[in-house]
Amino acid sequence: MSxxxxxxxxxxxxxxxxxxxxxxxxxxxxxxxxxxxxxxxGTDIGHITEANAYEFFLRNRIIGTxxxxxxxxxxxxxxxHVGLKVNVLTLTMPKFLANFNKRFKAVNDERERKLKLxxxxxQPLDKEKVGV
Length: 132
Hints:
This protein has helices spanning 13-16, 31-43, 53-67, 75-80, 93-121, 127-130, and strands at residues 5-6, 85-86. It is mainly alpha-helical. The chain has a domain at 5-92. Strands 1-2 form a two-stranded antiparallel sheet. The radius of gyration is 21 Å and the shape is elongated.
C-alpha cells in the first residue's frame, strides 16, 4: 500500500512544507516535512492536530530510542505541521504502546541473538579440545 499524504490543511504549507522552486521550476519538499510524513507510520498517528502534536512528537521519540535513531524534527516542527493528513491508521496510546512493546521485544531479541553469536565466535580456544 502506498503512503499518501495531504499538506493542504497545514498553515502556510507553501513555505512550511516546500522549498522555493529550483532553476528547473521543480518544487521540492522540505526534508523536515518528508521526515514527519514517514514518521506517521511508526507513531501510528495519521492526522496531526493541535491536540495530538505533542503525543506525535513523544511517540516518535519513543520509537527513536528503540532504533537509536537521530532526531530529524523538533516539537516546533510538528506544531508547524498541524493539519498534515496521511493514510495511516491512528491508534490509541494503549494500542500504540502494546505494539511498541512487541517491536521492542523483537529488536531486543535480535540484539541478544547477535550478542550471543559474537560471544561464541570470540571465545578463547580450549587448547585441550583442539589438540594444541
